[in-house]
Design a protein that fits this description.
single chain, mainly alpha, globular
Length: 292
């Protein structure tokens, strides 16, 4: 998608300050757990994973990460708890992305473990919004038409998908992970395809306002919109205020970040770990990529 330079009008940071402290707290625990896992600190990782998963409806990828990590640590009890939670929250389609979990499932489960997993799948069928899930699958198909190589085609498709997101949100409510499960990742994906368009698109700003309302209610991840904000900053030549795109830009030259203390304060407001820990997860030398 073409990149443009805009003044940022959407007060993402302000909305972050109004979020539920509880939501931000558990999002931070979720992200801290990922750092502990990356460092091989199993006890700390499981403690934070368990606490976060008990309170946040988002984080299916982290649940998969946790199950895979548990298997590498030989802790099948934790792995089973996380797998059960993945099934209960509609994350089964994502399991194809984890070789460790696929191999484990292929061995089969005895009772009562098998019954627990079947019950979790049944629980999800009660909460799943089949209309939203089908619509998001159709939007994903539209998104990929033309292979995103023809700018005109993908701009038209992006516009059609945004219209449908707005229309369905009006009739069925926001596509929160609690009702869309694995399909929730498509919402983030479709938003990312509108990066750089916050100021030019009133419809995008409207949908973002709907997302901000859900963030404040604790229904979706507090950091959902930070990547869009960071992209706007990069395109305008400003330092990233959250640093969420560090992994995206670190091989493309020098990265501008806010003062570390201010940056980490911004990150804490949305439940993100300090930028130093974030860099460790991706094996990035933070000093090297941010050195003038």
């Amino acid at each position: 998608m073409r990149c443009k330079t805009f003044l940022v009008l959407v007060p993402i940071l302000a909305s972050a300050q109004a979020q539920s402290e509880r939501s931000v707290h558990y999002n931070l625990l979720l992200n801290q757990a990922s750092v502990h896992a990356a460092k091989g600190e199993s006890r700390a990782a499981f403690t934070d994973y368990d606490s976060a998963f008990a309170h946040v409806p988002w984080g299916l990828w982290q649940r998969m990460e946790a199950a895979s990590f548990a298997l590498t640590q030989g802790d099948t009890s934790h792995a089973l708890l996380y797998l059960e939670d993945i099934y209960r929250r509609g994350g089964q389609p994502l399991l194809t992305y984890s070789n460790e979990i696929k191999a484990w499932i292929a061995n089969g489960f005895p009772e009562p473990e098998l019954g627990r997993l079947r019950m979790a799948i049944q629980d999800w069928s009660v909460h799943a919004d089949s209309v939203w899930i089908k619509a998001l699958a159709e939007m994903e198909t539209i998104d990929q038409q033309g292979g995103r190589s023809d700018e005109h085609i993908y701009l038209v498709n992006d516009s059609l998908n945004l219209d449908r997101l707005i229309e369905l949100t009006g009739s069925r409510g926001f596509p929160c992970p609690s009702i869309t499960g694995a399909s929730y990742s498509t919402v983030s994906w479709l938003l990312w395809h509108h990066r750089g368009m916050i100021t030019s698109s009133p419809r995008l700003r409207y949908f973002i306002s709907l997302a901000e309302a859900e963030i404040q209610k604790g229904s979706i991840d507090p950091d959902l919109l930070c990547g869009l904000q960071d992209f706007e900053d990069v395109q305008a030549g400003r330092p990233m205020r959250y640093g969420t795109l560090l992994y995206y830009y670190h091989e493309r030259g020098h990265i501008k970040l806010m003062d570390r203390a201010e940056l980490n304060r911004n990150r804490a407001l949305v439940g993100l770990v300090p930028i130093e820990d974030f860099a460790i997860q991706f094996g990035i030398d933070l000093d090297a990529v941010t050195r003038p």
